[in-house]
Sequence to fold (662 residues):
Amino acid sequence: MVVLAQTDLRLDANALDYVLVAFYFVLVLGIGLVARRSISTSLDFLLSGRSLPAWVTGLAFISANLGAIELIGMTANGAQYGIPTAHYYWIGAVPAMVFLGIVMMPFYYGSKARSVPEFLYLRFNRTTQRVQAVVFALASLLIAGVNLFALGLVLEALLGWPQSVAIPVAALVVLSYTFLGGLSAAIYNEVLQFFVILALLIPVTLAGLARVGGYSGLVEKITAGPNGAEALSAWPGSTLTEIANPFLSVFGIVFGLGFVLSFGYWTTNFAEVQRALSAKNMNSGRMTPIIGAFPKTLVPLVIVIPGMVAGVLIPQLVTVKAGGASDVTYNNALSLLMKEVLPNGVLGVAIAGLLAAFMAGMAANISSFNTVFTYDIWQDWVRPGREDGYYLRVGRAVTVGGCVIAIFTAYLAGSFSNLMDYIQALASFFNAPLFAIFIFGLFYKKLSGTGGWTGLLSGVASAVIVDILVRVGVFAISSQAGSFLGASAAFIVGCVVAFTVSQFTPSKTDAELSGLTWATSNKEQRGQGAVAAADAGWYKNPVIMGTLVLVLTLVLYIIWW
Amino acid sequence: MSDRNDVAARPPLSAILFDLRSVIGLLFVVYGVVLTILGIIGETPDELAKAGGLALNLWTGLAMLLGGVIFYVWAFMKPPMPPQPDEVAEVAEDGPPHKGH
Fold:
């Protein structure tokens, strides 16, 4: 019997590291206090009074997605698969973000809707709004809990804090700044987090590369290892998709990831769209996802590459890659690399960055949850017609309630680890049919209200059915291919049902749909009108900047073909 | 918002210091100074070996210091302007028009 030596995951943080982390927390709470000064209405609290400049909302747009699950998961994928991981950042995000900015944002922002469900009310009907609001609210709380639980795990492993302490403390920090400063505090902290996360990733990447002899040293070591050639080029990405046929693998990446999953997530997920809706004017709203797309194309350089370095530098991960037994998993790649290459000092900054990433994810869930709950469930449904101060108080109370429930879902996620996977899968299923009725409703004005919500529900049902069939083994495909298939099925079924039902149910009149569909909007409403003087200049033009970032993505693809 | 300034007037110093760019600047300058000092008083051979020979604290510190100063310069060069009255009026307080219930 072979006894494996226990791997010590604990980071050797010293007092100075903790001081650096503490200073970060002081600033985070300070931002909450400062942001509080500008809150007098529910719109200030829940949508930042629609006052933020584009660079702020653009970086928050990326940061809301750059949570810790993403950091840990994508460095793990980098260690396991190498360069193909970048598909999640390039084809899996950039085209959708550019499309959101150029085509969809004029309709979102121009409608003055305060949330995605409210837009669904304007375009479809109350039922569609309520179905989406309830599902989104539930999913946000569950995912906030998953984020919190993951944070508890990491704090326990890296710093030795017991989970029963780490989870409530982290929830309390997120609660205090979102309670005080509302969405502004959440967004300001997301921008701060973006830079602190970079201050974690860049030194880890540089030091890691220095240890393996630069990028050429890394290439040499990876080529010598298992699946060496596949790990160094993006296409066909068979190791990532687990689809052996190269053509089908490329098709899965382009249609499944690049179209259905990516457009579903980036263009309809309110936690993202909310950042653009809080921009100060239409042009800033349109620039938000496009400004966010620039860091999105570059960030894999400091996420995927350190993952690849960890895969050849950390002995336990080398063992895992070779198929041997070890007590670590790929999910330990980032923390093991931090421990291996960072001296005290930078280590403290890096720990602050990691904690920042956790709070970013959870704060995005909480701040979008309280907007949807307050406006779509409370004001438009349960208790309409009160004065604004009442809804501001509801927004604050819901923030507290949301954090408390997230603590419970965190413990729930901890007790049933499979449940956690399933919640994340389920949440991603909901995006595909939502995107289906969204995009269909944008270009087909006869899509009716009843068609909207039946399409939504049947799309979700078909995704769940495909998922179950994959899990019980009726379809013998990998879970990755299964999620592409499930999302595609949801998209197609959603469109077909919405179209069929619309043939028998009345749709809204052209006057009611003004500015909500392509056919019933004028050039100004589509964002093709004259440019305001303040928005002149190529760097404020969504079409030019959107094209630039697509070209940048293409160049990166050519480099790592 | 009773103390709304004239649009052309320079905003008060407190508005600049509490601007998001200054907060990021503060974080980066403080981190930068601490790491640079750590780097100057010397990294042990062990620490240098960890980062493959890079003086990681020193370089990260200097880079963060530079980044922090750039954020401060930006905040002072283009200070946050108080919202103009017509912009404030444009913001609807109760969402889109509700077409019946």
The radius of gyration of chain A is 23 Å.
